[in-house]
Amino acid sequence: MRLLTAAEMRAVDNHVIREIGVPGMVLMENAGRQVAGVAATFLQRIGGRKVSIICGKGNNGGDGLVAARYLHNRGYKVRVFLLTRFDELTGDALANYRICGQLGIDIQEVDEKYLPKLRFSLSLTDLIIDAMLGTGVTGAPRGLVKQVIDLVNDVEKTVLSVDVPSGLDAATGAVPGACVRANMTVTLAAPKVGLLVYPGAGYVGELFVADIGIPPKVLESAGRGTVIDASLVKSVLPVRPADGHKGTFGHLLILAGSPGLTGAAAMAAEAALRTGVGLVTVGVPQSLNDILEVKLTEAMTIPLPETADHTLSIEALPVILEKMDRVDAIVIGPGLSRNPSTGQLVEALLQELSCPVVLDADGLNLAAGLGLLPRRGSSSCPLVITPHPGEMARLMGCSTAEVQGNRVAIARRAAENFSCTAVLKGAGTVVAAANGDFWVNTTGNVGMATGGTGDVLSGIIGGLLAAGVEPSEAACGGVYVHGLAGDTAARYRGRISLIAGDLIETLSEVWQAIEREEVKEPWSYLV
Q: In CATH terms, is domain 2-222 a member of 3.40.50.2000?
């Protein structure tokens, strides 16, 4: 499903209205009808009759006025609270204001003096519809709108937001000031980036995507963003012929491990095996090989030359390169250490390898410290990097707060700067390709914030790469399945007690659900 920025959505609206000839009044009518439908379903479920709709003066308020008319026609008791004088309304919003007036719908203009009465009215309602601010508004709400947002949050009633919760930056997911905490959001035509990227995603509640009459071809050509879903993942999985053998499904090499961190290597290997790769070999410091031999049954191991600290040494380079003609992809980094000699090995491998590479964890930290990624040439290996926000900050020479302030923009910039596929981990993981395309993931939960889950992710992505999946598609498939495994495991274990190994145990169930098209996405599409 296409994912749009606020600017891209405005361009879509303008194109549909001016070039295709769909009147803006029709788009507003469709939007308000869809909002009213979700509202009515909720009210029927709870047996409620009273609806309060708070409208701003723009098109978002116009959508709210249309919803008021539909709910009024269904017999609900509707009150509209207008955060402006009616004579400041223009265009389609003004037309719908006049229609509501002709129908006898109660419309109250609100100023600061009216706020105590507004609080009392909202305390008696069954549903609040937030139609104050749309996608075109940036910055922190001020004045009357800020006060009303705070009031809406304070009365603790069920809230349905139109398009985006008022106060949320639709382009970035930032919440610069007061913001409505919605229980439901009906977004129009396509999800906006800010609805799926945190912190904004935490204000959305249940998400509905409303068809308002914009042709699908227009939406598909409108932007570079996509929401990752099960159908996308299924479409990129390699065919598994009935006469296939272990060589058919790829050979993954994992370079990982150091004293105290052998578990990282083992989990990456086990996750790759559960992803369907034919063969997995783990290259570890030679003194740790016996430990990995015990930890791993299905994966092979290679003892490699090590440093005095028992980490991989630059002397391992010829041994690794000699085996690369039998390897389809490589993961570098889980539990690797930051030993300088290990850094020399990573640097040499990035210059020498031609197969796809996943660079994770200490592999990324070494690359950042040595400035390796900016030196990558066009002939370098296909690369997927998987930083968490702190690692991304080191790679990009900025603060973690800057990374989190605009996750999509930072991920896209990293992918372009380093000519790679960038996976910015965290809630609402972002995948970005060097050509500007990007994807946002919606699976996963806070229980996955525990040691080892990143190693599981690198193994899944590496397994898909070794099986022949293209880097950006492998990254998208990896983050989606990884998150879905976390969600599945949380149902059995709970979020508090979730550990990385639980994700590996549920991978088989997750892959089956994707193949059988049994996954329920965390949004509803309204037609």
A: no
Tally Cβ neighbours within 10 Å of residue 229: 20
The CATH code that applies to domain 230-238+245-519 is: 3.40.1190.20
Could you tell me the mean pLDDT of each successive run of 10 residues in the chain, 527 residues long?
Answer: 92 95 97 98 98 96 98 98 95 97 97 97 98 92 97 97 97 95 98 95 97 94 95 94 92 98 98 97 98 96 97 98 95 96 95 95 91 68 96 95 95 95 97 97 97 98 97 98 98 96 98 96 89
CA distances from 456 to 350, 442, 483 (A): 22, 18, 11
Alpha helices for 285-437 (secondary structure H): 289-295, 317-323, 340-352, 362-370, 389-396, 400-405, 407-418
Record the pTM: 0.94
Please, what is the end-to-end C-alpha distance for the chain in angstroms? Answer: 14
CA distance 23 to 187: 19
**Residues whose CB is less than 8 angstroms from the CB of residue 366 and which lie 6 or more positions away in sequence, other chains included:** 336, 338, 342, 343, 346, 347, 372
Longest dimension (CA), the chain: 85
pLDDT at position 380:
74
**What's the pLDDT score for residue 376?**
64
8-state DSSP, 2: E
Q: Which of 131, 110, 221 is nearest to 182 (CA)?
A: 131
Residue 411's contacts (CB-CB under 8 Å, 6 or more residues apart) are 392, 422, 423, 424, 430, 431, 432, 438
What pLDDT score does 476 carry? 98
As a whole number of Å, the CA-based R_g of the chain is: 26
User: In Å, how far from its chain's centre is CA 92?
Assistant: 34
Q: What is the CA 68 to chain-centroid distance, rounded?
A: 33
Q: Are 230 and 205 in contact (CB under 8 A)?
A: no
Rounded CA separation 334/254 (Å): 8
Q: How many CA atoms lie within 13 A of 223 on its CB side?
A: 24
Neighbours of 501 (CB within 10 A): 17
Scanning the structure block, which residue is given the tokens 């080892």? 452
Instruction: Say how far residue 522 (Cα) sits from the centre of its chain.
Output: 11
**HEC profile for 91-129?**
HHHHHHHHHHHHCCCEEEECCHHHHHHHHHHHHCCCEEE
Q: Where are the domains of the chain?
A: 2-222, 230-238+245-519
The pLDDT value given to residue 370: 85
